[in-house]
UniProtKB/TrEMBL annotation:
InterPro entries: 2Fe-2S_ferredoxin-like_sf (IPR036010), 2Fe-2S_ferredoxin-type (IPR001041), 4Fe4S_Fe-S-bd (IPR017896), 4Fe4S_Fe_S_CS (IPR017900), Cytosolic_Fe-S_CAF (IPR050340), Fe_hydrogenase (IPR009016), Fe_hydrogenase_lsu_C (IPR004108), Fe_hydrogenase_ssu (IPR003149)
Protein name: Hydrogenases, Fe-only
Organism: Ruminococcus champanellensis (strain DSM 18848 / JCM 17042 / KCTC 15320 / 18P13)
PANTHER family (alphabetical): NITRATE, FORMATE, IRON DEHYDROGENASE (PTHR11615)
Keyword Iron-sulfur: yes
Source lineage: Bacteria, Bacillati, Bacillota, Clostridia, Eubacteriales
4Fe-4S His(Cys)3-ligated-type domain residues: 80-119
Pfam assignment, any one: Fer2_4
Length: 576
């Protein structure tokens, strides 16, 4: 350890710690606009400047990259520091489109917050020539508005390093520099996988999901439409953050109440379809295991991962489960089984989904996702969009009393809800597959080895005399590492779960933005995941094959898992 002083107060931190980390340990948050822990220590934005004295007088240094040294004195709050930050910010603002009133990030924009904190009074003092960019709306899920970009390059790091996709970077040089795809192609023309991790880290409104809230409002206002909504597992673990609840608060009941007040005809749960997915995918796994099918079987619920597989590992698409994602299974069942039950023409139904994910916006428009001759799902919203709709409708979210989902598509088990955390699909599948193969009840339903936020997890379970080898990866750079091990023959798993976003859907690209301090130093992913595991533990039924609603669906409509009708509605195909 080394002893240093921060603002005159002595403290001791591990050698090699950066000033930024040391200050955090001493409960002082130094503002950052580009820093991302472990992946983007480039010191580009110069907002984290502090004064450091190593015996040669005070010098301004960038706290995110400058390491502490013995007896260093650090000053984070002097007039010189504040002036340096303010000046840098004013320069950024001089080329930033400042239409804060209508910006989607107004109220939680990091740039706006800093301008307020630093007392930037007239952002126009450096005004002069600026660049003007076309908004890129070519991708199904998001827009890029470079007029609001501050060139922090966090999106570039998220895309290239976290996700190993790398379809964006800096184009041109100097004053003309802008972030975009190679040759300035539209994002929709590249091999972007729609994960939205770039949006999650963007400090401003330069990147945002495509907003579909007005389409939803129009559908609700149309009396000829029966408009139903489904909510993904992870939404209940994130939505509360839009209304000031601490990270890790379960707001399932309030969310249901709010959706009813927005005017949806029925409020259902994607978790129902997650249970259904386990029935289909579990059956597929057992079939492949026992009949020499293609292994490892790889899960198919995460559309960012599916697109990644199709673009970057086309030879492995045969390993993918043919199951549609729960979002899509829900829509297919709603527009067939439920529509028939209710006597509604599927053409008059609008299925809206609320997802923690931006790739779900892309998924709804994929080929082979319209089992009933109409799209399985019509509109996919992110958690953030739902938050905005509730806010705009004037619904006092905090004051709402908990309400229950509608039946029959609102019934779910603990296995369905843990889908939203990395390892959850695997655990849910194991609860069913092990019981089916061993023909007896599991003594414990908790498969701890596949829980937790590590990027890659491995486990082997002896199931009915066979050692079943499993792996779980979240985040696409981790997926790449795992798949390379499989391809090289270094690993021979039977079953793999892959989720596109690090930590799984709880950290999806459509979840509420978290502060830089939480993102870099907090454990927001684990806190959100704990909501799902508590929700699971509190359920009376925790195994997908014991979901009474799913059983009835098979008994009265689909016949059995893997049936012809189940295949027609619930399975899909991939492109190479
Ligand atoms: Fe997910 Fe899924 S868990 S993909 O992570 O399989 O988005 O939450 O809805 O479809 O159920 C997301 C979450 C979600 C699907 C399910």
């Amino acid at each position: 350890n080394v002893t240093i002083k921060i603002n005159g107060v002595e403290t001791s931190v591990p050698a090699g710690t950066t000033i930024l980390e040391a200050a955090h340990m001493a409960n002082i948050e130094i503002p950052t606009l580009c820093f991302m822990k472990e992946i983007n220590a480039i010191g580009a934005c110069r907002i984290c400047m502090v004064e450091a004295n190593e015996g040669r007088g005070n010098r301004l240094v960038a706290a995110c990259v400058y390491p502490v040294s013995p007896n260093m004195q650090i000053f984070t709050n002097t007039p010189r520091v504040l002036e340096a930050r303010k000046r840098t910010l004013e320069l950024m603002l001089s080329t930033h489109e400042r239409n804060c009133l209508s910006c989607v990030r107004s109220g939680n924009c990091e740039l706006q917050q800093l301008a307020k904190d630093l007392g930037v009074e007239d952002a126009g003092i450096y005004d002069g020539v600026t660049n003007h960019y076309e908004i890129d709306g070519t991708a199904a899920h998001m827009i890029r508005d470079n007029n609001k970009c501050i060139l922090c390059r966090r999106c570039v790091a998220a895309c290239g390093i976290t996700q190993s996709v790398g379809v964006i970077g800096a184009n041109e040089r100097g004053f003309k520099t802008f972030i975009g795809s190679a040759f300035d192609m539209g994002l929709g023309e590249t091999s972007c996988v729609s994960c939205g991790q770039c949006i999650a880290v963007c400090p401003t409104g330069a990147l945002a999901e495509k907003d579909s809230t007005s389409e939803v409002l129009a559908a609700i206002a149309d009396p000829s439409k029966h408009v139903i909504v489904q909510t993904a597992p992870a939404v209940r673990a994130g939505l509360g953050e839009c209304f000031g609840y601490p990270i890790g608060t379960d707001v399932e009941g309030k969310m249901v109440a709010a959706l009813r007040r927005l005017g949806f005809d029925k409020v259902f749960d994607t978790d129902f379809a997650a249970d259904l997915t386990i029935m289909e995918e579990g059956t597929e796994f057992i079939d492949r295991l026992q009949n020499g099918g293609k292994l490892p079987l790889i899960t198919s619920c995460s559309p960012g991962w599916i697109k990644f597989c199709e673009h970057y590992y086309p030879d492995m698409t045969e390993n993918l489960s043919s199951c549609k994602s729960p979002q899509q299974m829900f829509g297919a069942v709603a527009k067939s089984y439920y529509a028939e039950k209710m006597g509604i023409d599927p053409k008059d139904m609008v299925v809206v989904s609320v997802m923690p994910c931006t790739a779900k916006k892309f998924e709804i428009g994929r080929d082979d996702q319209a089992a009933n001759g109409v799209p399985d799902v019509d509109i996919a919203l992110t958690t953030r969009e739902l938050g905005r709709m509730i806010q705009r409708a004037g619904i006092n979210f905090q004051a709402l009393l908990d309400e229950e989902f509608d039946m029959p598509l609102g019934l779910s088990t603990g296995a369905g809800v843990i889908f939203g955390a990395t390892g959850g699909v695997m655990e849910a599948a194991l609860r069913t597959v092990v019981e089916v193969l061993e023909k007896k009840e599991l003594p414990s339903l908790d498969f701890q080895e596949v829980r937790g936020m590590e990027g890659i997890k491995e486990a082997t379970y002896n199931v009915a005399g066979t050692d079943v080898k499993l792996a779980v990866a979240s985040g696409l750079a981790n997926a790449r590492m795992l798949l390379d091990k499989v391809n090289s023959g270094e690993a021979d798993y039977h079953f793999i779960e892959i989720m596109g976003c690090p930590g799984g859907c709880i950290n999806g690209g459509g979840q509420p933005h978290v502060s830089p301090a939480e993102r870099n130093f907090g454990d927001y992913r684990a806190k959100r995941a704990s909501v799902l595991y508590s929700n699971d533990a509190a359920k009376a039924v925790r195994k997908s094959h014991e979901n009474a609603g799913v059983k009835e669906l098979y008994d009265t409509y689909l016949e059995k898992p893997g049936s012809h009708k189940a295949h027609q509605l619930l399975h899909t195909t991939y492109v190479k």
